[in-house]
Amino acid sequence: MPPAPPKQTIFTTMSALATELGAINLGQGFPDAEHAPELLAAAQRALAHKSNQYPPMRGLPELRAAICDYYGRRQGLALDPAQVVVTSGATEALAASILAVVQRGDEVIVLQPCYDAYIPLIERAGGMAVAVNLAPPHWTIPFDALAAAITPRTRLIIANTPNNPTGTLLTRADFERLGELCEAHDLTLLCDEVWEGMIFNGSAHASPLHVDSLKGRAIKVGSAGKLFSLTGWKVGWAVAAAPLADAIAGQHQFLTFTTATPLQWAVAEGLTLPDEWHDAHAAIYAPRRAQLIAGLEAAGYVVLPSAGTWFVTIDLAASGLPADDELVAERLIREAGVASIPVSAFYRDNALRGYLRLCFAKQEGVIEEALGRLAGFRTSI
Ligand SMILES: Cc1ncc(COP(=O)(O)O)c(C=O)c1O
């Protein structure tokens, strides 16, 4: 008998239920319209006119150069293509990075709430996840608890900024402190930065690769799916100092080996679009975010402060609702026809149960309709 498969993710469960019930899907994070026609055209051109055979294992040189150029222009990072491994989505970059660093019996510190792939991937590598909890409303890193969680078996810390589900950001000061800990205990930092293009409060995105102490021991993970609102493309990458990048490439070659060649060409073209294009692309979501937050607040919901991603979270108890996110999510989809994601799904032990995540990457009419339903739900429950 094969071992029991991992539990189905909450995103799949909620999206399936939304389809079955005909609910508005503010659960899973994907846009309900195309916002990057330039990339669709580039992919069509690549399919028709460029190679459709295996690309180089570490990614097309043009894409790896474009990733370095993009991060140089947009984040002030000086990178070399030898530092880049192109993967099948950020998910594979996370998997290859964890497999490159973690061996049986190693401990990995995850900051919860955390994206739901981290812990299963750590366990698949034979490691043990050690959770350090972030607390609302600001979800800042509790550095004393983090330092106390480090043991001689700790190898890796996983961080995520902008954070899914909270939408909050880590700062350069956070990375300085993480750098001190990583240097002192010889740890690697894996930083999931897939939402780096979606920051709405004017803050600059901070990466561990901005900090000298982390340049040799941090892995930065990115995703074209998020940068271009093309979540189905599954083109991602890991960026790290060359020896670390070599170790990640070593794992990638036996995970997927390569990633769809025409999509790599198109993403390379997309990354070289002018800064104005990238700014305008992110700006598409700002009014939708403002609309969802304002509508929720007008309906009596308490929305937590956030700065990035396609999500906002609401505090159920402060909104006058039962502080049981699974129960509220279940009733919300069945009684009001709106899918959401309970934030407890981002905790290994469902440690925090009073918060719900809602996605605003939807058309304005859809958000309007959802807000009407949410308003009615709050007074009916
Ligand atoms: C924090 C985080 N990491 C990784 C991923 C996966 O990215 P990809 O679709 O490129 O595999 C997501 C997708 O939502 C995410 O939110």
TrEMBL record:
Enzyme class: transferase
Keywords: Aminotransferase, Pyridoxal phosphate, Transferase
Quaternary structure (record): Homodimer.
Name of the molecule in the record: aspartate transaminase
Organism: Alteraurantiacibacter buctensis
PANTHER family membership: FI04487P (PTHR43807:SF20)
Gene Ontology MF terms in the entry: kynurenine-oxoglutarate transaminase activity; L-aspartate:2-oxoglutarate aminotransferase activity; pyridoxal phosphate binding
Family: Belongs to the class-I pyridoxal-phosphate-dependent aminotransferase family.
Transferase is among the record's keywords: yes
Domain Aminotransferase class I/classII large: 24-374
Cellular-component GO terms for this entry: cytoplasm
Reactions that this protein is recorded to catalyse: L-aspartate + 2-oxoglutarate = oxaloacetate + L-glutamate
Cofactor(s) essential for the protein: pyridoxal 5'-phosphate
Tree of life domain: Bacteria
Enzyme nomenclature, EC number: 2.6.1.1
InterPro entries hit by this protein: Aminotransferase_I/II_large, Kynurenine-oxoglutarate_AT, PyrdxlP-dep_Trfase, PyrdxlP-dep_Trfase_major, PyrdxlP-dep_Trfase_small
